[in-house]
Write a structure and sequence with these properties.
The protein is mainly α. The protein has one domain. The protein contains 18 helices and two strands. It has a two-stranded antiparallel sheet. Helix 4 runs antiparallel to helix 5, helix 14 crosses helix 18 and helix 16 packs across helix 18. The longest helix has 30 residues. Keywords: Cell membrane, Membrane, Transmembrane, Transmembrane helix. It is a multi-pass membrane protein. GO terms for molecular function: sodium:phosphate symporter activity.
């Protein structure tokens, strides 16, 4: 069991999480202070906040990172709580890009992509040092709408893109390799009585899958990793597609734990941001749970393989949940929850 299940899972999960963190860090350094600048500038209305949150999350490949940044900006008094509502909705939509890419079943490209990105990264070091970045943090408070400023000097911005872009590509390659390794446990897992019992119980009530997805995501702090494992098991017929979708919905609930932790000890407004994130994901899970079979049926029309169906269901779930919640962001009651000056 150790060599056939535990070791591959731990190895694959470690590669996946390291790849996600490498990709997130590289993209964060690539974008630099512009992340805060964009969040501060393009969140005047919930719709603009939704679009900004979607774009930044898709670019950074981490809804948690954008949510934590938003909480930090609110705690610092740069943003007000009402202006973060659209951002929270957008992060749930933007995070679907990761699962959609994984659902393309391009795991065989992991090694070539890793080698190519490593070659580009090494070449960037021979091209010379990175240009300096001039960042004025005081402008976050003192500037008029225009917000945070960042300037790359030296006329060699392409080198920064080359270096950090290759690191981001290497991170994604490691994500693909991690999934490939985790998928090898399928035959061994199917022969285990405990796993067969879990699948049997989940067939009777998909709530088992929702709970499992939420618990494991809260443990590893990565909904993408848990969804990827569910997609991998469904691809090799280790679990039914409906169970994979239930695990995906649960993973969206489990990812709220990180935002909740980020809000602890912060301002009252920062805690409201964390709780709005929880309300969106838990509310969406409650709304969609009775319709998992219908969600799978719709996803089957738009996808082919089992992994693609789960990825498409994740996208439909997040997009519809965010769009249903968007009108509530315009309620006047939120204006009374402006805690900019409170700590």
């Amino acid at each position: 069991m150790i060599t056939s299940i535990v070791l591959p899972v731990l190895t694959g999960l470690a590669l996946f999480l390291f790849g996600m963190k490498l990709m997130e860090t590289a993209l964060h350094h690539w974008a630099g202070a512009r992340l805060q600048q964009w969040l501060g500038r393009f969140t005047l209305t919930p719709v603009r906040g939704l679009a900004t949150g979607t774009a930044l999350t898709a670019a950074l490949q981490s809804s948690t990172a954008i949510t934590v940044i938003a909480i930090g900006l609110v705690n610092a008094g740069v943003l007000t709580f009402p202006r973060t509502l659209g951002i929270i909705l957008g992060t749930n939509i933007g995070t679907c890009l990761t699962t959609e890419l994984i659902g393309l079943s391009i795991g065989h490209l992991g090694v070539p992509m890793l080698l190519a990105s490593a070659a580009v990264w090494l070449a960037s070091w021979f091209a010379g040092p990175l240009p300096p970045t001039d960042f004025d943090a005081r402008s976050a408070v003192l500037a008029v709408p225009g917000g945070w400023t960042a300037r790359v000097t030296g006329g060699r911005g392409w080198l920064r893109s080359m270096r950090y872009g290759s690191l981001a590509a290497a991170g994604f390659a490691l994500v693909l390799l991690g999934i490939e390794i985790m998928q090898t446990i399928g035959p061994a897992l199917q022969s285990r009585g405990l796993f067969a019992w879990f699948v049997l119980q989940a067939k009777q009530s998909l709530l088992w899958g929702v709970i499992a997805g939420a618990a494991v995501t809260a443990l590893v702090h990565s909904s993408a990793a848990v969804i990827a494992m569910a997609m991998g098991l469904a691809a090799i017929q280790g679990i039914p597609v409906e169970l994979g979708v239930a695990i995906t919905i649960g993973a969206n609930v489990g990812t709220c734990v990180t935002a909740l932790i980020a809000g602890i000890g912060g301002s009252r407004a920062g805690q409201y941001v964390a709780w709005s994130h929880i309300l969106l994901n838990v509310g969406g899970a409650i709304l969609f749970y009775p319709f998992i079979h219908q969600l799978v049926s719709v996803s089957e029309i738009l996808a082919g393989s089992a992994s693609e169906i789960i990825a498409r269901a994740q996208t439909i779930f997040n997009v519809i949940s965010s769009l249903l919640a968007l009108p509530f962001c315009y309620l006047s009651m939120w204006k009374r929850l402006d805690f900019r000056s409170q700590s």
